């Protein structure tokens, strides 16, 4: 895909309305909400808008640019899901296969049934966790950072943290499998470490390290040259620092770009949240999905695979099946496919959008969405944790859809 922007009006976007995106971006920086951000909008296979505002590294005055490398956290999940579906297309498994066929540590799972006086009660899982359960976050697994249930607390106590672990991907998965599930497999939508487990599944099924498979089968064919699990020395000047909302306003540093653990190769490469990337790199991935699995004349996925991945697999929206806990999406009017949220009803979601549009975001407030009906892909990159700090994703959606002019 050619990343040089074309005239917006050539792809049905009004330049006079894109001015509102410029102003919005400047306002994020001037108000102190964000240190810096970038937005890329593509339609009909061409970039119609690329703009950056503010600073990527405040301590050193490094400007945010189209080449800035950022932590994309859970925007890693769709890439991992594509890797899984490549193995599915290769004939290695069916989606309703128990994951224990490949990861036997998940063979005899138990499920949280209550707690009293510090003792957790469990019952046997009614059925095995399937590969589809992992792809749809209906496996019964959870995240330790949720800090909402005794099972979350067990994750923290036992070190089930794919971001910080220094052992191996398989070791962390085995510990997770030894702990109770939060819910029966298939019963609830709970945002979880499921995609990290899928990364380990990719390694076991393919017979090669997860990161090697992802680089060879997904990143390299797409030309995602700045996307990896660490930032090499020659690219560190382009790496952004990570921030949180400051106690007295503005932002406060939480991960210095020049001292970050992302500057070194990782012992555990997290399929759920370990990658860094750039706007141009991630747009290549989005264009592959919009191209029904093809990019630059090369097919990575079958078109029916893409259709299956971007269909809702919940039978309703996340509100009808999910719990009122954190995720990178609203619950009302939004379903979930095999690695993506899926828009079902924009009116119920109370936001501009199109039924069938799919999306996800990352913990540092990054986000993307893909709207096949409008031939539209949008990427928002910044570095502010947590992603629930400000409603910037929803604000950008309004401004983007309002600029469509055909």
UniProtKB/TrEMBL annotation:
Pfam families: Beta-lactamase. Signal peptide: none annotated. It comes from the Bacteria. InterPro entries: Beta-lactam-related, Beta-lactam/transpept-like, Diverse_Enzym_Activities. Gene3D superfamilies: DD-peptidase/beta-lactamase superfamily. Residues 21-397 form the Beta-lactamase-related domain. This is Beta-lactamase. It comes from Acidisphaera rubrifaciens HS-AP3.
């Amino acid at each position: 895909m050619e990343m040089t922007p074309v005239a917006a009006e050539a792809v049905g976007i009004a330049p006079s309305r894109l001015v509102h995106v410029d102003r919005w971006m400047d306002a994020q920086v001037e108000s102190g909400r964000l240190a810096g951000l970038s937005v890329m909008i593509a339609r009909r296979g061409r970039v119609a808008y690329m703009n950056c505002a503010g600073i990527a590294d405040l301590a050193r005055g490094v400007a945010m640019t189209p080449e800035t490398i950022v932590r994309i956290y859970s925007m890693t999940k769709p890439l991992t899901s594509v890797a899984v579906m490549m193995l599915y297309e290769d004939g290695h498994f069916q989606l309703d296969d128990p994951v224990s066929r490949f990861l036997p540590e998940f063979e005899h799972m138990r499920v949280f049934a209550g707690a009293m006086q510090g003792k957790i009660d469990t019952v046997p899982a009614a059925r095995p966790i399937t590969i589809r359960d992992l792809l749809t976050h209906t496996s019964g697994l959870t995240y330790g950072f949720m800090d909402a249930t005794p099972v979350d607390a067990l994750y923290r106590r036992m070190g089930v943290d794919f971001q910080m672990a220094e052992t191996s991907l398989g070791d962390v998965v085995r510990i997770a499998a030894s702990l109770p599930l939060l819910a029966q497999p298939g019963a609830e939508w709970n945002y979880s470490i499921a995609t990290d487990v899928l990364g380990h599944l990719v390694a076991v099924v393919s017979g090669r390290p997860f990161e090697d498979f992802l680089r060879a089968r997904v990143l390299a064919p797409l030309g995602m040259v700045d996307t990896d699990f660490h930032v090499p020395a020659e690219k560190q000047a382009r790496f952004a620092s990570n921030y949180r909302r400051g106690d007295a306003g503005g932002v406060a540093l939480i991960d210095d770009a020049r001292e970050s653990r992302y500057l070194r190769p990782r012992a555990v490469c997290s399929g759920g949240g370990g990658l860094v990337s750039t706007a141009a790199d991630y747009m290549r991935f989005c264009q592959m999905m919009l191209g029904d699995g093809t990019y630059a004349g090369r097919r990575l996925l079958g078109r029916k695979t893409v259709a299956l991945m971007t269909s809702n697999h919940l039978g309703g929206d996340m509100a009808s099946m999910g719990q009122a806990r954190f995720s990178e999406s609203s619950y009302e009017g939004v379903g979930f496919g095999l690695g993506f949220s899926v828009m079902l009803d924009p009116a119920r979601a109370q936001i501009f959008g199109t039924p069938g549009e799919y999306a996800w975001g990352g913990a540092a407030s990054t986000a993307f969405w893909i709207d096949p009906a409008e031939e539209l892909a949008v990427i928002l990159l910044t570095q502010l944790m947590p992603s629930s700090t400000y409603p910037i994703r929803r604000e950008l959606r309004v401004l983007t859809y309002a600029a469509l002019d055909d």
